[in-house]
Design goal:
The complex is a heterodimer of chains A (170) and B (77).
Chain A: E1 3-6, H1 8-14, E2 29-33, H2 43-54, E3 58-61, H3 65-79, H4 89-101, E4 105-106, H5 110-118, E5 127-128, H6 130-137, H7 140-154, E6 156-158, H8 160-166
Parallel strand pairs in A: 1-2, 1-4, 2-3, 4-5
Helix pairs in contact in A: 3-4
Chain B: H1 3-23, H2 26-31, H3 36-46, H4 49-56, H5 60-69, E1 74-76
The chains are: A alpha/beta (170), B mainly alpha (77).
Chain lengths: 170, 77
Amino acid sequence: MSLAVADTCFLINWLSFRRWEDIFKLFYRILLPSIMAPELRSQRIRSRVEELVYRGRLVILPRADYVDREALRIFNLVNSTPGLPRIDEPETYGLAYAALHGLPFLTDNASPKVAVRSLSSLKGVVVYDSLDLLVLLYRESELRTAVEEFMSDTSIVFSRERLREAGVGL
Amino acid sequence: MMTEQLDEYLQRLEEAAKLRRRSADWAYIESRPEPLRTALKLLVETGDLWYSSKLSGVPLDELNEERKRARIPLVVV
């Protein structure tokens, strides 16, 4: 895997993880849609993002009509399907870009993951959350340690079911 | 996704909401000025950082830092 599209909330939290640079063992470059960039206001996060842009590890994606059209289609489809969790506009744009270009989408929100598993038109789109990345990065006791560190650094909690599915017993 | 799987996801989301309500430092939340207080309460109920930020007008990363102080976990289901 060389590229991945990230959601802002995912990026903000992942950059707080002490091992945040390990993400580049999985992806050479992270793509952040420009509609999400204004959400990054804290100096600490902005500095880190600017450094990543400078190093060529993060690219801000320009807004494009063809992605907007697909995003609007997904937005309407997900939000009008009974039972599916609501999806946000920027998140939809990121998911649409990822779907159109065959790239994984990184988010800790449930909605995109549920949507790609539920809607036939999004079949095959890969959505990873933080736990998925930790599982891809680490094995056995190191995975357990990394999960504990991640939860401590970010105040993100993985549900018992997800931890069990990942084979992590805490 | 089969209906049973979707139901299971929705159940996990409901469990996540209960965990946020249980874990939250309500005294801290009530001590915050508006619109932060409402943003944090919205976050407890929805678990959606972007939505809570957008509706309240509190910047996303500021709300994220505040939710850590308020001990509101983001739950990945």
